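Supplementary Methods, section 5.1.

A reviewer requested that the exact input to the structure prediction be made available. We therefore reproduce it here, unchanged from the version used in the analyses.
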Amino acid sequence: MSAGSAAVIAKARAKYGGLLGLDEYKTLISKANVGEIVAQLKTYGDFCEDFSAVDNTVRRSQAERLMEKRLFRIYDELRKFCPGSKNKFYDFLLIQEEIKQIINAAMYIGAGVYDLFIPGFPGYLTNICSYDIRALSKSRTFDEILDVLKGTPYYDVLAPLSDGTKAFPPIVSVDYELTKYLYTTLFSRIKKDMSGSERTEVEKCIRRRCDMYNIKICYRLKGLFKMSTEDVVAHTLPFCDRFDKKTMEQILTKADNEPILPLLLKLPYFKDINEEQATDIETAVYTSNKRYYDAKLALSQCDSTVIYSLTELLQIENRNLTTVIEGVRYSLEPSQIEKMLIL
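The structure derived from this sequence is encoded token-by-token as follows.
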């Protein structure tokens, strides 16, 4: 391991050591409102760096945007700190965030609820985004979204979905095409810039992530929308680790006659999930992810794996904080909020 890689890993593990634990979450849950939660957050780790400008009148949406800003700041610090040519792979969260904004635009603008997209606008992306995100928020048709994306790979990905009218394509198709592009790009960069055990380890991380995407798609499209097995498979990624096409089709076929959630939870990824964590697929996936990335971050000697794992864990931390904020806002019992946390 090079000195540069060792320094990146040490820096990432120091950030990992600052992730919130159960005691901190319990203190946050005990607060009366969003303002008190944010005031307490400022006393933890580096949260004050991003939350210092807000007071106890802060709104939920503002607090959540600051949480996302903090995540991206930590990621960006590590990305710029990384040595060598692998920096292209380290763009993964930037690409993921750009795609998230396009999907949100297609979802909210396509539904005609324009105001819901604007509050989600991440101002910290303005200067580094590959497209004009302000112009994206002003789009009112799918073709206007495409106009904003011209000159980026996203245009080529989404242009075939346009039928030349003002109609929006199904959001599941937009999500699928962009997510497929994300992972195709990551695998290409891994192949180009990594070799040996490093490539194998990072590829496995990303393939596992593809499995989790496909698991959630199977649950959503078959369990909620009752799509045929053929149609569901058509919307799953062509990459896998342990959740291959044969296994997927077997589960989807059985799900024609029985609930799909118990079938999915029999997959090896969820063998240690307890009853409370098996109430919905999102909780099961996040719980499995946390255990996996905790182990990877603690044990891996690969800087790419460690940084990827840290960003996944930071996203889980943000999810937990959102759970706390929502639980306090709706006056849920502290014990009920605590059970909803991914720990």
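The CA atoms of residues 122 and 340 lie 26 Å apart. These observations are discussed further in the main text.
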